[in-house]
Amino acid sequence: MPRKIRLTDVAEAAGVSAITVSRALRKPEIVSPAVRERIQAVVDRLGYVPDPAARALASARTNVVGVLIPSVTNNVFTDVLRGIYATAETTDFRIQVGNTRYSLLEEERLLRIFLSQRPAGLIVSGIDQTETSVTLMRQADCPIVQIMETGDRPIDMMVGFSHRDAGAAAARHMIERGYRRIAFFSARMDPRSQRRLAGFVSVVKAAGLDDETLLVTTPRSSSVTLGCEMTSELLSRTSNVDAVICNNDDIAVGVLFECQRRRIAVPDDLGICGFNDLEMMAVANPPLTSVRTHREEMGRRATRMVLDAIAGAPIAEPIVDLGFEVIGRESTRRGERPA
Amino acid sequence: MPRKIRLTDVAEAAGVSAITVSRALRKPEIVSPAVRERIQAVVDRLGYVPDPAARALASARTNVVGVLIPSVTNNVFTDVLRGIYATAETTDFRIQVGNTRYSLLEEERLLRIFLSQRPAGLIVSGIDQTETSVTLMRQADCPIVQIMETGDRPIDMMVGFSHRDAGAAAARHMIERGYRRIAFFSARMDPRSQRRLAGFVSVVKAAGLDDETLLVTTPRSSSVTLGCEMTSELLSRTSNVDAVICNNDDIAVGVLFECQRRRIAVPDDLGICGFNDLEMMAVANPPLTSVRTHREEMGRRATRMVLDAIAGAPIAEPIVDLGFEVIGRESTRRGERPA
DNA sequence: CTCCTAAATGATAGCGCTGTCATTTGTCAA
DNA sequence: TTGACAAATGACAGCGCTATCATTTAGGAG
User: Fold this and answer.
1) Is the CB of A64 under 7 A from strand C?
2) A286 near A252, Cβ under 8 Å?
3) To the nearest whole percent, how much of chain A has pLDDT over 70?
4) Assuming Cys at both sites, which of A11, A55, A150, B325 could form a disulfide with A18, CB separation 3.0 to 4.6 Å?
5) Partner residues linked to B269 by β-bridges
6) Per the domain annotation, does B216 fall within a domain?
7) Contact at 8 Å (CB) between B96 and A96?
């Protein structure tokens, strides 16, 4: 293995000082074009790659953008991650993912570790950090974007949407489509799920349609299986229900499968609405209504905001609301019959 | 923001030299118990966290384990990732994921970047790296585990299973269950998909059941939608088919939805078999047969192998075959009728 | 020409830690 | 008590880069 090429090797070969090479690489515009090109040629010829550890030590700043998410398997976050990776991979910045497993304390622990490494930027999920976490982040001198939801009082920047509004919109959709006995299925009550539920509740209450027996929740994480089980549980409790809003698409698919098994007609006997609008919703049988969210775009946007802030660009919008759309499909297209 | 606590701060407070603190943290056993405890107390009190950049620079070795995977959204890899994160998060090592997007050249590029950072270890997907990548990895002086599949000639270590055997086993299962006109649906023909197809082909050929018109492939990435479309395509081409083996579970679910729409009876008119045995397969209607693979365990195992090797432990088994199981469910449980 | 200013380049000193070798301390046999 | 050897600890240099300040060069104005 040939000895590692260092900055000084490049400098020597190009006939300039080390610091000039350093500058040519980091801020080309402050080096004269002639020198810049000569250096670039040598860099290419020798295959020089800067040592990130040395850079970090000397500049007290790494090229790492930390990302804290609650799950590395949940579709919602992997979609966001894809957007983050896609945006970061054309730059010199590396993404480092921390998995908080829906624990605010684990988030705090990871935050400490990340911050001790002087990250270039940080992307964290949600707006419900612990007091300590918030303090840590306020003291941090790197750009920070909170993703997944919006709120007032951002730590620095935010990209997301209102989960409360989304839950309310789903409820309104069901009511407009003629459903009256609307159940709500929710797994893993993370803060965002709770806000969607709150939005749902506020709407059904206002319409005089609220009924606590129609709420099914569990701390287990969401899955298709869970959708089946929740359906069974609800139906064992009451048959007086004509629709289900699911806090996640996989639950909705589970409800659909269970309905098929029990020969419950969707959408006539039971309307189904999911959340996130995963790809499969459109091709299910029948196609399932869902609330579309913009997960990949959220990742892209958040990353761009961090990178812009690192570059010192002024932040036009510190809070970006990406919105959502209720995509009404056949699963909530009820025939004309008494409500 | 209080000044960062350094090693020397701890050393001073504990009344020892810096190097002793360094040793107490990295190799506690070579420091006397009394001193070790005194140092640990000071570390806790001051909240000292070592600077990874300085460590990396001084020791020419980072605490980063690089992971190269083709996709950050594909379920298969996110499950593996979960195993990797779970195993790594109890250690001082950080995971850094590189997304090759199924491109061997991108993989090579990322490999160069990763290796230039002197990673503690590397986990790469598959066994089909470019010549250059292989050379780079052979020259690297860190442990490397290839995951997802097995083969002879590992670069260093391997954890996976034989995709060819898995494809063959699925084919055998269908034949045993009485299917004779067995189609094969495959998206994104990555090397592993191709090997599963090859295993399938070898079995149907041996049984005299091979028919090229029953092969449906596409470079598009797999999805439920794709399963629907492939079903339509196949049926527009021929109706002489009694089963489908899908190279991915989401395709299988798509086939199921399309069958439901077309009122094709599963399993009597068409048997369906997926691959990976995602959670939803067991609760679909009817439950879908699939080939179960051990993705999370693969991630855990690979990470443990890397960590053990870093720690200098002898490698008991450099090649670990995790196997697979055909989980026969109702979707391939055909009633008694002429084949 | 000279002087002044800005642009370009360089010299120097670390960043916080660990590798290496040197020194001190402790233990035990003779 | 002494010497030999291992265990424990320390001194020092330097990993590869960049921040900071110093110096040189270029480009006009007068």
Assistant:
1) no
2) no
3) 98
4) A11
5) none
6) yes
7) yes
d(CA B192, nearest CA chain A) in Å? 21
Q: What does pLDDT average to over chain A?
A: 93
Residue A206 has pLDDT above 90, yes or no: yes
Tokens of A273: 């609405």
State whether B223 and A280 contact (CB < 8 Å): yes
**Burial letters A233-242, b for 16+ CB under 10 A, else e:** ebbeeeeebb
**Mind telling me how many Å the CA of B243 is from chain A's nearest CA?**
20
Q: From residues 41-60 of B, which are strand D contacts by CB within 7 A?
A: 57-58, 60
In a domain, A1, yes or no: no
Domain that holds residue A42: 7-50
What is the full DSSP assignment across A220-245? SPP-HHHHHHHHHHHHHH-S---EEE
For residue A177 the two structure tokens come to 């489509």
Residue B307 lies in a domain: yes
Half-sphere exposure of residue B236: CA atoms within 13 angstroms, side-chain side: 7
Q: Are residues B128 and B73 in the same domain?
A: yes
Q: Which helix (H) or strand (E) holds B274?
A: strand B271-276
- The tens digit of pLDDT for each residue in A10-61 reads 999 999 999 999 999 998 888 888 889 999 999 999 989 999 999 999 999 9
Domain check: are B196 and B278 in the same one? yes
d(C-alpha B208, C-alpha A194), whole Å: 57
Is B338 a domain residue?
Answer: no
Alpha-carbon torsion, ordered A126, A128, A133, A138, to 10 deg: 70
Distance of alpha carbon A52 from alpha carbon A222, whole angstroms: 40
Specify whether B259 is located in the same domain as B272. Answer: yes
Hey, how many other C-beta atoms are within 10 angstroms of the C-beta on A3? 6
- Which phi and psi (to 5°) does residue B67 adopt? -125, 120
Q: For the sheet containing A121-125, what is the strand order?
A: A94-99, A64-69, A121-125, A144-149, A157-161, A319-321
Q: Which residues on A lie below 8 Å from B78 (Cβ)?
A: 72-73, 78
- Nearest beta carbon to residue A82 from set B72, B223, B284: B72
